[in-house]
Design a protein that fits this description.
The chain is of the alpha+beta class and 120 residues long. Helices cover 35% and strands 25% of the residues. The chain is globular, with a radius of gyration of 13 Å.
């Protein structure tokens, strides 16, 4: 199967690969449904800080070649990070904090990753 180049998912930039957008969207969903806040580092600055607004988070993804999500709980305590390298397609989530919470989030998004790996 050929990957569509553009995506039309939420507020992600249109140049983001569709597979990456779907995986990152699943990651955002998994974090927000737990009541977590996401800060977005675009490789140069914290473009979004402690947000629970999906569109705001999506808009700042892929401003550069990599994006880091710093995840905090509702009280503002650090939960962990997810490091995204754009262009890695189904492997866009390149690293994350090795703890129980981040592993649970990873396991939740893994079926979406597996789906796109199978399409390659």
């Amino acid at each position: 199967m050929t990957y569509p180049i553009r995506n039309n998912i939420g507020s992600f930039p249109t140049w983001l690969w569709r597979d990456e957008a779907e995986i990152i969207n699943a990651l955002i969903t998994a974090c927000l449904k737990r009541g977590f806040m996401i800060s977005v580092f675009d490789g140069e600055e914290w473009a979004v800080k402690k947000s629970t607004k999906r569109a705001e988070i999506q808009k700042e993804v892929a401003a550069t070649d990599e994006t880091t999500f710093r995840v905090r709980d509702a009280e503002g305590e650090y939960v962990g990070f997810f490091w995204l390298i754009h262009g890695n397609r189904a492997h866009v989530v390149s690293d994350h904090t090795a703890n129980e919470i981040c592993e649970a989030i990873w396991e939740e998004i893994e079926p979406v990753i597996d789906h796109w790996e199978a399409q390659a």
